[in-house]
Specification:
177 residues, mainly alpha, three-stranded antiparallel beta sheet
């Protein structure tokens, strides 16, 4: 039996659907605290108490730098976050939670975990498997220094021709990929 060709658009649609439905469900909990999804992501990262530079915070919250700056300004105004100079590099600024910010994060985090547990979208073992697969998927798409994806870098140049052949239909559909 011939294998069904991989359809990236189907996978992307499923990923987008899962993300949007999950965020929508969690947003209802966050709204009760006057907290956006992006602010929750910032508070989550800063909850470790280590202090993080703005680049790390922007990456964690999936925000461009100017948008993050406005969000952090608001969190500072709300006395949830404070900025301090990085002692290792005085040119950099680190963001940290205030005691009030840590308390807010704990409240919000408890409510989010309770909502997630109540919804129980996946069994624990399925959730762990999904977490592993999504981490691997994300890692494969991050850029390697040569400008190729890590997955292509791991496959090496010999496998690149196979990928090219597959995309042009030169490889039989029964060949495992």
């Amino acid at each position: 039996m011939a294998r069904r060709p991989r359809r990236p658009e189907e996978l992307l649609r499923l990923l987008t659907r899962a993300e949007r439905l999950s965020v929508e469900r969690i947003r209802s909990v966050l709204d009760a605290f006057g907290c956006s999804v992006e602010a929750w992501r910032v508070l989550d990262l800063l909850s470790d108490g280590a202090g993080h530079n703005m680049t790390a915070v922007a990456d964690h919250a999936f925000l461009p730098a100017p948008t993050l700056t406005k969000l952090v300004d608001q969190l500072v105004d709300d006395n949830l976050v404070f900025r301090r100079i990085d002692p290792a590099d005085r040119r950099r600024v680190l963001a940290q939670l205030t005691p009030r910010g840590l308390e807010r994060w704990q409240q919000v985090s408890r409510a989010v975990r309770a909502e997630w547990a109540e919804a129980e979208p996946l069994a624990p073992e399925d959730e762990e498997a999904l977490r592993t697969l999504l981490a691997r998927f994300g890692d494969a798409w991050e850029e390697a220094p040569e400008g190729t994806t890590r997955a292509r870098a791991r496959r090496g140049p010999a496998d690149t021709s196979r990928v090219r052949a597959r995309s042009t239909g030169a490889e039989s559909s029964s060949t495992p990929s």
